[in-house]
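Much of what follows relies on a compact textual record of a protein's fold. With that in mind, consider the following protein and its fold in token form.
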Amino acid sequence: MLVGFVFLYLVLSIGVGMYAATKVHNARDYITAGRSLPLYIVLAMVFATWFGAETVLGIPATFMEEDLGGLISDPFGAALCLVLFGLFFARKLYRMNLLTLGDFYRERYGHKVEVIAGIAIALSYLGWVSAQVTALGLVFNVLSDGSITQAQGILIGAAIVLMYTLYGGMWSVALTTFVQMIVIVIGLVYISMLLADMSGGVQPVVQHAVDNNKFDFWPDMNAVAMVAFISGLLTMGFGSIPQQDVFQRANASKSERVAVWGTVLGGVAYFMFAAVPLFMAYSANLIDPALVAQWLSEDSQKLLPELVKAHLPLFAQVVFYGALLSVIMSTASGTLLAPSVILSENVLKGWVTRKNLSERKMLVMTRWVVGLFSLCVTLYALWALDSDTGIHQMVENAYKVTLVLAFTPLVAGLYWQRATKQGAYWAMGLGVAAWLPMEFIAPEAALPPQFAGFLMSIVGMVAGSLLSRVENVEAKETQAAE
């Protein structure tokens, strides 16, 4: 019966997404929903997209195994990203009337920088989307009592998300995430209230966490620990700012005011509500300590689903798994669309033809890319499953590439008039040169590889821009002398 209810919910979600497809008439509708979305829809999209599998399954698992400091990247870094984007990036980018974030790099630095940034941004999504698909596989595995393997569940989940994202684009994301946000909030609040009653209330759960030092947050007062802590915050806090999904939600707003406040309020809502899954998972210590011991030793990501399945009535299970599927699908659909749009508009479009594509052909190409990217995501998720990479870790790793490649050119391009094309090349080149070798040779170094790459990208932008200006001045002086 539980599986039947979940199946019905999936069918309804697909139906909403397919209805949204009727509103898509051209590529701009598909990508930006006509720039017509009100504040409550934008807020819902930001919240529901970021409140993903890692928030309900990955973050609680990390908290159970470590402490609050282990969550510095998410939700702390994630919420920081959304607030910063809303306050310092949304208004400027909205006024430029861009179709994608990659368009900014083209207008500011030229086509080659656009292509490099577009590829980097698209690659960063492999980890994030794969984390959602992996979580869907985990849910189907738990629901079927193992009859569906996690690998088979990944294939099923990827097919479902692809189905309604492929046709409806941003309209599907907007309508489905609005419905899914309602399900997420009501469902998880209801489940947390039931678990609170079973554990004796909120206070005993919090006190148990305090007694076991689970709220330890700040690092040890030594250079290595502090650098690792700051790096964890900035990898997601800065690295996820140059992302198409964040830009796309702001850019689909009906006004720049909605773009700013929809993003900021969505980030605040995400940070506050991320505490709910933490409470739900940790309450298992008082409700069923044996279950905690079992799943911490096997797969801590399954603790919360197994707790609900073992101790709550059928109706509550239906509500929980409905909310969990909403969490995952709302994130998966948005994060599947974003890189596909970047690849179509900023990478492939220039290779396919030197002329402007018609709206119809652009829409067809974007849908093809959505399908192909979903295939890559599925293969990556299956590989990560074999390598025992956790959902939280998959999301953390996703933003390293954009931190070292895309963040500095974006900030400099918006806020430093002296930033040049050569500065962008140097920032990207030095960032990758410092980061990538360290990632393979010394991934656990005192200075995290992505942080080293981030610092070198700043050096590259400043040095490259200033040198190019000096060269231009000398060239002009030489021409004048001749």
The CA atoms of residues 221 and 367 lie 51 Å apart. DSSP finds 24 helices and no strands in the chain. The mean pLDDT is 84.
